[in-house]
Amino acid sequence: QSALTQPPSASGTPGQRVTFSCSGSNSNIGSNPVSWYQQLPGAAPKLLIFGNNQRPSGVPDRFSGSKSDTSASLAISGLQSEDEADYYCAAWDGSLSSYVFGTGTKVTVL
Amino acid sequence: QVHLVQSGVEVKKPGASVKVSCKASENTFSNYYIHWVRQAPGQGLEYVGIINPAGGTNYAQNFQGRVTMTRDTSTSTVFMELSSLRSDDTAVYYCTREMTPTQYFDSWSQGTLVTVSS
């Protein structure tokens, strides 16, 4: 099954804004909502964004999501050291009848 | 609040099968789809499949023919069995839930490490 494409890494200094993408196709991102997950080192993934741009309760508003056509983006503003983690996008793929995940982006706080 | 708790570490030989359990809270078991996702060491997340509250299943193409998901209503537990294990099945296997149908996973379990080695 094909994965959604993310840049392998992104970085910024504390307080900066970092943005990275998640690229898919018409059968997944183009026709279904995108969710984002944060995975801290050694931990299970945690829901960060659902429905393209909605935050669950408890997730800081520094995290925001957007979607356009067959791509989605996650932005982290006011970057903090505790944001160092791996981030994955996900969407349902109608052609595969399966969920697909992004390849993952490792965020480093310099 | 803990919604999903998995069984412990497994070590298996190539060709064997492994059955991982995921015990859900009563509300989760009755009202949520349970999905399985795995993560090989140092790698990304890979979707395995789903079992719904009625017991219906759908498996990702990469696992069809080798994976079976079942549920035990008496213990609110979901099981994922993977057969014909290979070394590249070594991974942490997570169960996660989706409120039907929302298309996102709102709670994840702690994961079960399955190691396949001769």
What would you say this structure looks like, in words?
The complex is a heterodimer of chains A (110) and B (118). By secondary structure, chain A is an all-beta fold. Chain A is built from no helices and nine strands. Chain A is globular and about 40 Å long. Chain A starts with 8 loop residues before the first strand and ends with a strand. Chain B has one helix and eleven strands. In chain B, the strands form two sheets. In chain B, strands 2, 4, 5, 6, 9, 10 and 11 form a seven-stranded mixed beta sheet that branches. The mean pLDDT of chain B is 95. The longest helix of chain B is centred in the N-terminal third of the chain and has 6 residues.
Give the termini separation of chain A: 34 Å
Average pLDDT, all residues of chain A: 96
Given helix and strand content, the structural type of chain B is mainly beta
Number of strands of chain A: 9
Number of helical elements of chain A: 0
Radius of gyration of chain A equals: 13 Å
Which class best fits the helix and strand makeup of chain A?
mainly beta
Low-confidence stretches of chain B: none
Biggest sheet details of chain B? 7 strands, mixed
Number of helices of chain B: 1
| Helix proportion of chain B | under 10%
Indicate the low-confidence ranges of chain A by residue numbers.
none
Strand content of chain B: over 45%
Mean pLDDT of chain B: 95
What oligomeric state do the depicted chains represent? heterodimer
What is the rounded Rg of chain B? Answer: 13 Å
**H/E series of chain B, N to C?**
EEEHEEEEEEEE
Form type of chain A: globular
Short précis:
The complex is a heterodimer of chains A (110) and B (118). Chain A is an all-beta fold.
Descriptive terms for the model:
heterodimer, A: mainly beta, six-stranded mixed β-sheet, three-stranded antiparallel β-sheet, B: mainly beta, four-stranded antiparallel β-sheet, 1 helix
Task: Give the topology.
The complex is a heterodimer of chains A (110) and B (118).
Chain A: E1 9-12, E2 18-23, E3 35-39, E4 46-49, E5 63-68, E6 71-76, E7 85-93, E8 98-101, E9 105-109
Parallel strand pairs in A: 1-9
Antiparallel strand pairs in A: 2-6, 3-4, 3-7, 5-6, 7-8, 7-9
Chain B: E1 4-6, E2 10-12, E3 18-24, H1 26-31, E4 32-39, E5 45-51, E6 57-59, E7 67-72, E8 77-82, E9 91-99, E10 107-108, E11 112-116
Parallel strand pairs in B: 2-11
Antiparallel strand pairs in B: 1-3, 3-8, 4-5, 4-9, 5-6, 7-8, 9-10, 9-11
